[in-house]
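Box 3.1 A note on notation
Throughout this textbook, protein chains are presented in two layers. The first layer is the amino acid sequence; the second is a token string describing backbone geometry. Keep the layers aligned when reading.
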Amino acid sequence: MSRYNVKGTFFVLGYIAQKHPQLVKKIISEGHEIGSHGFWHKKIYNQSKTEFRHEVLSSRGVLEDITGQQVNMFRAPSWSISTDTLWALEILEEEGFICDSSIQPFKTYLSGITYAPVTPYHPVVNGRKLKLLEVPPMVLPLGRLRLPFSGGFYLRALPKWFVSYALSEINKKGPGMIYIHPWELDVSQPRLKASLLAKTIHYFNLGTTLNKLENLLQNFEFVSMSSLLKSREYPSLPVISAEDVRYEENNSVGKQ
């Protein structure tokens, strides 16, 4: 990122920050932005509202103590803000967060909301418009299908040319977002015992991450989340519409 003069947002776990404060200071010293990733990487749907608030505040407290800067960006562990945990967005806004990036606009075995908006938006939750900006991971819409490509396993699995093509298509309408995990750059990391699914998602194509990331940094312009907030106005949208709820219910009936 330094080579291409790109600044980004680093979502850091409170536990990791507490254990490696110099790492957080290095990120800040190079001009990047720090956001909270929670404290223990505990999925939100495994927490009560009180537990979630405590995790968020504990993480932010550690990060702000280290950086001396306000931390108001958040990403949930495992993208775990879903239809059952939309209350987390309200708590984030109550606690002064201005940007969240936790809602996958497609369903996985861990999380996601099938027909959530695919571009940055201000969520409407329980009929109330939030000032908080939601920045979802990018998908390429194909009719009612949505193809994820912008990070993690999807970035590693898909060819470099397709990732660039998909991001270019997204950019015709607005900003896109690319994300990676630090371990995705570490080809020599230990191989842990796990299920075939978990091993595939975690280790597949690790050797391609750096090359794909560098290609994107060369060919696209990137900014931090806070810079994105300042760049334009964004619409207020329901996280999931009544029409989409009915569609999902009908789909569920058909599968029974």
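The first helix runs from residue 14 to 19. The radius of gyration is 18 Å.
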